Amino acid sequence: MKQIHLAAQLPGVQNTVIWSDPRAGSQIAFDSFARLARTAERGRFDFFFLSEGLRLREHKGRVHDLDVVGRPESLTVLSALSAVTTHLGLAATVNSTFNEPYEVARRLATLDHLSRGRAGWNVVTSHDAFTGENFRRGGFLDEADRYTRAAEFLQATRVLWDSWRPGDFRADAASGEFIGAGAGGFEHRGRHFDISGRFSTPPGPQGHPVIIQAGDSAEGREFAASDADVVFSRHGDLAGGRAFYRDVKRRLARYGRTHEDLKIIPSVSYVLGDTAAEAAEHAAETARAQVGPQTALMLLEAAWGRDLSGYDPDGPLPDVDPLPDGVTEGHTQFRKGREETVRRWRRIAQARGLSIRGLVTEVTARPTFVGTPRQVADAMNEFVQTDAADGFILAPHLVPDGLDDLVDQVVPLLQEMGVHRTEYTGGTLRDHLGLRPHRSTAAGHDGTAGRTEKEAS
Amino acid sequence: MTRLHLAVALDGTGWHPASWREPGARPAEILTARYWADLVTEAERGLLDFVTFEDTLGLQTSAFHLPDDRTDHVRGRLDAVLLAAALAPLTSHIGLVPTTNVTHTEPFHLAVGIASLDHASRGRAGWRPQITSRAADAAHFGRRTTPQLTPEDVLDSELIAARLRELFGEAGEVVEVVRRLWDSWEDDAEIRDAPTGRFIDRDKVHHIDFEGRHFRVRGPSITPRPPQGQPVVAVLAHASTPYELAAAGADVVIITPQSRADAVTRLGGFGRARQRSGRPAGERIKAFADLVVLLDAEPGRAAERKRRLDEVDGSVFGSDAAVFTGTPGELADLLLEWQEAGLDGFRLRPGVLPHDLAAITGGLVPELRRRRAFRTAYEADTLRGLLGLPRPANRHTRAGSTGPAR
Ligand SMILES: Cc1cc2nc3c(=O)[nH]c(=O)nc-3n(C[C@H](O)[C@H](O)[C@H](O)COP(=O)(O)O)c2cc1C
User: Fold this and answer.
1) What's residue A105's pLDDT?
2) Which residues in chain A are closer than 8 Å to B198, comparing Cβ atoms?
C-alpha cells in the first residue's frame, strides 16, 4: 500500500483562518509556530510549510482588514523552528521574482545545515507590479516570463549548490587545508542571470533542498515535471485530483524521471465530529465563521471590481456587470480575469439558489474532509490509494491548536492501517518523502561537472 | 562606577587566521547549529549583552577589496540572520546581532528578516548593516557594479571612505527604509474586533512611501511591529563616512581605537558627525570599541600563544581593531581606562574559539564584577533593556497623538 505523505501549513492570510474563535492564538508569536510544528512532528508529518506574501492585500485602495494580517519572514522562523524540532521537514515559500539566486541558494543551504537536512523550497513565481512596489527592482517582470525566470533561477541555484564538490570542505588541521582549491567557484550565463564568482556556503546534508512547486497552469505543471520534488495542488476532490495526478505524472517521462520522483499533495482541510452529523454541523459553523457578511461582500467586490456595499450579503447576486480594472490588489485568485470568474459564480449561485454569502462560502472553501476520524482516515486513504494524491498538506482553521485533533484521532488510524509511519525512519526531508538524492549530487562529481559549466541560454 | 556593556563578535573559529588549527578548535563543525549553540550559551552564561555574527556575501578573503585563493584559512559560512534565529529558542536573555549586507540585498527582505528575528527571540534582535565594497560580490548578482578599489585606496581608511561614499549613502537609505517599515504597523494595530469583523485597524497600518536617491519602497511591512519596536541597529565605523551612517541611523556605534587617546579622537569625530546629522540629542547612541583579544591567566602566555599562531600562519596577525594579549586582569584594567574616554562598552573579538570566549566569561567577567563594573544578573529581557535604551515610540503614534508619549 502507498504511504501517505502529510505536511502541515500554518495558514497565513486567508479568510479560512478563524481568528474570532476564543481558542485562536497569535499568528505572529514564535510560540504559535513552535506549537503547530511540534504537533506535526508528534504526528510524524513529513514537513511543516509556510506560504509567502510580500505585500499586504488592499481593497478599494486601503489595506484589507477582515482576515488575519501580518506574518514573519518564513526562512527566519523555520530556522528558529529547527532548534525546537528534530525530524520535521521545514519548507519555505520563496518567490523567484523579487530575489536573487545567490541569496536564496545561501539561505536555503544555511537552513539545510542548521536543520541537519530538513530544508524545502516552494518556488513561486509572483510577478505583479503591486508587490514589486516594495522592491528596488520594481515589478517589471512580464507574466509570460515568470516561469522562464523561475526555471533559470532554479538552474542557477543548482549550479551554486553544486559549486562545492564533496570533500571541498576539509577543515583538515594536519594538512593545513581548510578547503579544496577553487571550492565554490561558479559561473552561470543565461537570459535572466549572468553571474559568476565564489559561493560562500558549502551544500547542506541534502545537497539540494527539496523543491516544491505550486502553480497550476500548463507552464507550472511542466516546471513541476521537469524540476520539482513535490507539487502542491488545489485539486482536492477525487475526480479533479485524479485528472491532475495523471496529467502531471505523465509529463515526468519527458525529463527522464519516474513516477516516484514527484509527490503530489493537494492543500486540504478537515472537520471532525463524533458522528457524521456532528461533523457536518461543525463544518457548517466553521463555514459561517470563515465568511462573515463583510467578508462575503469584500470578495464579491474583488470579483466584480467595483463597489457593491449597498447589496445585502444574504440577498441574491448583483445584476450589474464587473468592471475591468478592479478594486483589489494582492488576491491571486482573480489574476486570470474577472469576467470569467463572475460568469462562473453566477452559474453556481443560480444552480444552487445561493445568496451572496452562500456563494462566497462555497467558492472560497478549501477542499475539506468532513466526518468522524474513521471516515476521514478512510477518505484520505482512498485518495492516496486511487492516485488522486500522494498525500496532503493540511491547513487547519485554528492557529496554533488546529491540528491537535487530527494528530490525536486520525493519525493513529492511518498508522493502524499501515499507511503512515509510526516513527521517522530517516533523518532528512528527502528521506521522509522517499526521494532519491538530486541527480547532480547523486551522480557525484568527477572533478569537472557542475563547477564552471556554462549553462546554455 | 558606570557598568560596562560587553559583547562578543563570533566568527568562524576565532579572529586569528590560524585559530582553526589550534587544539580544541572545532573547525569541521562551523556549519552546524550545535557549534554555535555552545558558543552562544557560553556567552549567555557570562551575562554578556549581545553576540554578533559576522557575514559576507562572498567567500571570506584576507584581502580587503579582492577575493583571494587561499585554502589555508577558514572559508565557508552560514547566513547570519538565519544562524541567529536558530539560536533564539536556545537562549533567553542575550542579544543576537547578525551582520547583513545592504548593498545588494533588498531593504524589504532585511526589514522583515530582522523583525522576524525580534519576534522569534522576544525582543533580543539587533542588526549590523554592512556595505560590500568588493566588486566580486557584485558579480554574484550580475545587475550592477560597485567601485573597484585599488591597493592605494585600501591603505587609508579616509580614502576608502571617499571612494565608497555613494555606497554608504545608499546604506543610509536602507537603514531609513528598514526603520520606517518597522514602524509601519503601530503597536496596537491588531484589534480582532469580532462585532465589526475587523482583524486590524487599517488606520494604524501605514504605507511608508519612501523615495530616496537610489530606490523607492511603498510598504507597509508584512510583519507587525517587532517586540522592541525598533531592533537595535549597530554600525561598525572606522572613518568619517561610516560615522555619518552611524550618527544618522544607529543605536550603537562600534569604533576601532588603537589606544585610549585614539578613542578620545575617534569619539570626537563621531560626536561631530552626530551633531551634523541633526538627529535629536535625546536619542541615545551607545559607543562601543572593538578589541581582538587573546587571554590567558598566566602573564606572558597569551603573547606567546599569539606568536605561535602567527608562526603557524606565516605572518603577524593584525586587524582593523587593536589586538590585545594578556591576562583577564590586564584586560579589565585596559577596558576601565578606555571607558573613561566616553565608551559605554566593548565588543571583544576572541582570537581563538572557544578558548578566548571561555577566558572572557570565566576570567574577565568575574574580574570586572569584583570591580563592580559588570552586571551580576540579567536585569532585562530585551536587548534594548540590557543596553539601557528606551523602547522608541512609533513615529506615527508620535506624530498623531496629542497626549503624553505612551
Ligand atoms: C496550493 C498553492 C499554494 C500557493 N502558495 C503561494 C504562496 O504562498 N505565495 C505566492 O506568492 N504564491 C503562491 N501560490 C501561487 C503559485 O505559486 C503561482 O504563482 C500561481 O498559482 C500562478 O501560477 P500558475 O499560473 O502556474 O497557476 C500558491 C499556489 C497554490 C496552488
Assistant:
1) 98
2) 65-66, 294
Place of cell 557584485: B138
Q: Is the CB of residue B140 less than 8 Å away from at least one CB of chain A?
A: yes
- Structure confidence at residue B362 as a pLDDT band (50, 70, 90): very high
Q: Grid cell 464587473 — which residue?
A: A322
A176 and B21 in contact by Cβ < 8 A?
A: yes
The nearest CA of chain A is from the CA of B243 a distance in Å of 25
- What is the identity of the amino acid at B251? D
CA distance A370 to B231: 45
Write the residue in A30, A73, A164 that is nearest to B113 by C-beta.
A73
Q: Which of B240, B247, B154, B171 is nearest to B212 (CA)?
A: B171
**Nearest CA among A394, A377, A408 for reference residue A47:** A394
State whether A70 and B122 contact (CB < 8 Å): no
Alpha-carbon distance B22 to nearest alpha carbon in chain A (angstroms): 8
Q: Note the pLDDT of residue A334.
A: 65
Nearest residue on chain B to A160, alpha-carbon basis: B140
A113 vs A106: CA distance, rounded Å: 10
- Rounded CA-CA distance A422/B403 in Å is 59
Q: How many helices (H) and strands (E) does chain A have?
A: 16, 16
Element housing A81 (H / E): helix A74-82
Q: Return mean pLDDT, chain B.
A: 94
User: Contact at 8 Å (CB) between B27 and B20?
Assistant: yes
Pocket flag, ligand 1, residue A86 (CB < 6 Å): no
CB B73 within 8 A of CB B67: no
Mean pLDDT of B223-250: 96
Q: How far apart are CA A435 and CA A429, in angstroms?
A: 9
Nearest CA to ligand 1 atom 23: A215
Three-state secondary structure call for residue A39? helix
Q: Average of pLDDT values for B362-376?
A: 98
Cβ contact B139–A196 (<8 Å) = yes
Question: Which residues from B are below 8 Å from A196, CB to CB?
Answer: 139-140, 142
Closest ligand 1 atom number to CA of residue A221: 26
Helical residues (DSSP H) of A133-187, grouped into ranges? 146-161
- CA dist., res. A3 & res. A375, Å (int): 18
DSSP string over A372-425: -HHHHHHHHHHHHHTTS-SEEEE--SSTTTTTHHIIIIIHHHHHHTTSS-SS--
Give contacts of B121 with chain A, Cβ < 8 Å.
Answer: 30
Q: Are A96 and A108 in contact (CB under 8 A)?
A: no
Scan for cell 513565481, then name that residue. Answer: A125
How far B122 CA sits from the closest chain A CA (Å)?
A: 8
The average pLDDT across A108-129 equals 93
* C-alpha to C-alpha distance for B193 and A109, rounded to whole angstroms: 41
Closest CA to B323 of B256, B240, B242: B256
**Residue A237 per-residue DSSP state:** S
Q: How far is the CA of B24 from the centre of ligand 1 (A)?
A: 49
Instruction: Please check the confidence at residue A442 and state whether its pLDDT lies above 60.
Output: no
Q: Does B117 touch chain A (CB under 8 A)?
A: yes
Q: Compute CA distances B381 → B89, B112, B386, whole Å.
A: 14, 21, 7
* Gap between the Cα atoms of B13 and B35, Å rounded: 10
Which atom of ligand 1 lies closest to the CA of A217?
Answer: 26
